[in-house]
Every structure is written in structure tokens, then in C-alpha cells.
Amino acid sequence: MSTIKPIKLGSNKTNINEKLTSAEMGKLWATYTGNSMSKCILSYYLQHVEDEDIKTLLENALKLCDEFIKTTKEIFEKENIPVPQGFGEKDVNLGAPRLFADAFYVHYLKYAAKAGMSIYSIAIPLVYRKDVKEFFTYCINATIDLISQIQEILMNKGLIIKPPVIPVADKVEFVHKNFLNGFFGHIRPLHALEITHFYDNIENNVTSKALIMAFAQVARDEKVRELFVQGRDLTTANIENYMKMLSNENLPAPSFLDDLVTASTFSPFSDKLMLFHKMDMFSMKIRAFGNSVAVNGRHDVGLLYVKSFLKISAFVENAATIMIEKGWMEQPPSAVDRKNLASE
Predict the structure, then answer these.
(1) Is residue 318 part of a domain?
(2) The pTM is what?
(3) What are the pLDDT digits (tens) for 150-164?
């Protein structure tokens, strides 16, 4: 049953012949680029997966990638906008040996689905053209369905623990002046939202650590390899700090996934793809820190996230610098550089 009363207005302001806005163009560009990368990774995962349920999950995810790529490409071509180069066959070696255990694929898909949702959900209130809005609405709904399948497999196969359970309060209470304390005086227990984001950040980071550890094993370029090692150590320190915050409250946390990485040193992916992927994943961590800080109240928790933010930002900048030096970074759709326009 619908709970929203319809508004009957003309649709001439949002017809599909309207030019794409910067928001529509940018989000479509990000969707195409990200899914072209995911297609390479999922295609490789499918070469080695043995568990039939996980195989079906990977096939479903790959099907969504293909659909999203096809739709964004059609819109770009219709508007005579250059289709991003993204990633393709040259960025993946399907004959490479197994680099991950089957269980890792499920954790990876959950992380990737979260990243996709962050693009699609932010797009919805910013896009106006009907076909683009319908596309991102479909992306969200399809990704929600995929996440439901991922969660079902994670729980049924015992691959993850649920977020911690906390007591139910007897009554509504209001905070006192010591609510913000984190270093001195009475320090209150973590509240539900702070616990939620610690759990989420740990869950994201244990997947990120396993992936960057694998990338460090197989990267060909020494500069890229060194950056991956730095990112691995940084991620490990962050995980341990977040786990300590939950442990201090006698609360459980997701465990490391390092054992799901094999000892292979033969790379299934190009250095360009791996570096872009880690730059993108670390950028997602920055967004996650923003969400975490927004609901936090304790000074010590806030400082922990600020320190993490600064270190992660430095990694992203270093990764971007290498991408630019190597000529690997594509230029997103941009505004006119009017300061450097020259008359003919």
C-alpha cells in the first residue's frame, strides 16, 4: 500500500532528451568505471570457485556488472559523451593461479556492494532525468537483493558474526555533561551507533587488509608494491585500534581474513587495476570515517578517527600520484577550464 500521495505534474522538465547534468554525468562515469573493474575481478574469481552457492553469488554479481556497464554505455553513446576506458581484458589474467579461498569472495562481495550502494544512494537525490533516476533506482534495488544473498551465505556458512548485542534500556534517558569525555573523568560506555560504526569499519578493513596483502604479494612494479605494504600495515594498525575499542567494552568484533589469501605470487590483475582498486577502497574508508564521526560523542573516539583519516588520506594521495605518473588515471567529466581558454 502506497503511503505517499502522488503529485500530478508535467514531466517535460525531466524528459530523456534533456542534457545530462554534472551529477548525472559524474555518477554514471563512476558507475561505469567501477563496474568495469569489478567485472575483471569477478571473472577471475569464477575461474577457481568450487562452492556452488558462492559460485551462484559471483555469477549474480557479474550479471549486475554487465547490466550496469551496458546501460551506462548506452546513455553515454546517446549523448555523444566519450565512454570511459575503464578496465578490460588486458587488466586481468584469467589463467592465473588461485589467490583467494572461496570464503573470501563472499566477504569481498559484501564490501563491493557497500561501495556500489554509496554511489547509487547518493545519486538518487541529485539526478533529475527520468531514465537516469530509474537506472540508479534499479541499481539500488538490485544491489540490496545481492546483499541479502551475501548475508544469507555469510550466516549459513558460519563465515561471520553479527554485530554485538547490547542490553535494552529500562527507560528513555538523557545524556549528562560527561557524555563527551574520552580521556579524563567518567568515560561512558560506547553507545549503539558508535559500536555499529566500529563494527562496520572493522568488517570493511579486514577485507581490505586481506586484499591489499594479496596485491602486495603479486604486484610487479616495486613502487606499487611498496605502497601496498604500507597500506597493509596501516590497515592492520587501524583494525587493531578499532578492535581494542570494542574489546574494552567486552564486545566481539569480526576476525581477520588473512588466512583466506594463498601464497601465490603470480598476479591475476594489472598493477593499474590493483592500484586503482585500493585507492578507491581507501577513499571509501574516508567516507566511512565521516559517517562514524557524525554519530560519535566521545573525544577519544573522535581523535582515533581523525588520526585514521589523516593516514588514509596520505595513502590515497600517494596512490593518485603514482597513477598520474604512470598515465593510468582517467580524467572524470569536468567543468570548462575558462582561465586557460584561448581564442582561435
Answers:
(1) yes
(2) 0.92
(3) 999 999 999 998 999
